[in-house]
Write a structure and sequence with these properties.
The chain is about 35% helix and about 20% strand. It has about 300 residues and is α/β, with parallel strands linked by helices. It folds into 3 domains: about 80 residues, Winged helix-like DNA-binding domain superfamily/Winged helix DNA-binding domain (Arc Repressor Mutant, subunit A, Orthogonal Bundle); about 100 residues, 3-Layer(aba) Sandwich (D-Maltodextrin-Binding Protein, domain 2), CATH 3.40.190; about 100 residues, 3-Layer(aba) Sandwich (D-Maltodextrin-Binding Protein, domain 2). A 5-stranded mixed β-sheet has the order 4-3-5-12-6, covered by helices on one side. Strands 9-8-10-7-11 form a 5-stranded mixed β-sheet, covered by helices on one side.
Length: about 300
């Protein structure tokens, strides 16, 4: 069965309002013959003549009168749906957003983000969920509204990305660790026992590649999946962690951080979302809040 032409609803609404093919045609900027053909299609679709001759004019049939009470409402609702969204009223916004981030984001930016949201849109709830991988599926499926992280090869090509801030890797050890005193050379750094952070469980990372170029190797004592785990282990042992500096600022409190004696490429933390949310006023507002907080302009 073929789908009905919904444009005929507008035609029927105008014909019933004008009671004339000629006037209806002028209103819709059609020729009289085109309007007559549209009326013929309406009659075929409804199985009713709809408008019949009465003297020099047209009068609606009982079926047309019955349809008229519904058609006007449907056309008005459709026009309302296709208008640009009204200005967002944050004080009346009642919505939940899901944000997916690696550990460190909530600890560093969560409080300021929640404070801004509570001040501007008290009816909005933020749900923070962990980010075990870079798969864009949750954003594509609509289970995640916004994400932060480094754009990688597994990031879907359709995903929108906007840079939030640049970060660099630093070394981290417990207070009083031997590396907390004296100059930290690449040799001293490599001689320690290290924590490798790999969500995929790899046995080496960029630090190992860089050390290898200098003819050095390090001992990987353990492999963990996140920054918080690595820093918790470093806090209670002589193990060395290598983490992004700004992203883990709060997590590193009480620990000794130092510039790496080997050169690692900086990383850019970006804001990621699916393009279907590009024009959504509430989502645009939330993206702005996250950018402000990460720029230090939060609450």
């Amino acid at each position: 069965m073929s789908r009905p032409d919904l444009n005929l609803l507008v035609t029927l609404d105008v014909l019933l309002a004008e009671g004339s093919v000629a006037r209806g045609a002028r209103r819709l900027k059609l020729s009289p013959s085109a309007m007559s053909r549209a009326l013929a299609r309406l009659r075929e679709a409804t199985g009713d003549p709809l408008l019949v001759r009465a003297g020099r004019g047209l009068v609606p049939t009982p079926r047309a009168v019955e349809l008229g009470t519904q058609v006007g409402r449907l056309v008005n609702e459709a026009e309302a749906l296709l208008r640009p969204a009204e200005r967002l009223d944050l004080t009346r916004l009642n919505r939940s957003f899901t944000l997916r981030n690696s550990d460190g984001f909530v600890e560093n930016f969560g409080l300021a983000l929640l404070a801004r949201v509570a001040e501007e849109a008290p009816g909005v709830q933020l749900r923070f969920v962990p980010k075990p991988d870079k798969d864009s599926g949750p954003m594509r499926e609509g289970t995640v509204d916004l994400e932060t992280g480094v754009v990688g090869g597994s990031t879907g090509p359709e995903v929108r990305a906007q840079a939030l801030f640049r970060d660099r890797f630093v070394g981290v050890v417990r207070a009083g660790h031997p590396l907390s005193e004296g100059k930290i050379s690449a040799t001293r750094f490599a001689a320690g026992r290290h924590i490798l952070i790999s969500r995929r469980g790899l046995d080496r990372g960029p630090v190992d590649d860089t050390l290898e170029l200098a003819g050095l190797t390090r001992t990987i004592a353990t492999v963990v999946g996140g920054f918080a785990e690595a820093l918790a282990l470093a806090r209670g042992s002589d193990l060395i962690a290598t983490v992004p500096e700004r992203y883990t600022g709060t997590l590193r409190e009480g620990l000794f951080s130092f510039a790496l004696p080997v050169k690692l490429a900086p990383l850019t933390i970006s804001l990621l979302w699916h393009p279907r949310l590009d024009a959504d006023p509430a989502h645009r507002w939330l993206r702005g809040i996250v950018r402000d907080v990460c720029d230090g302009r939060g609450a």
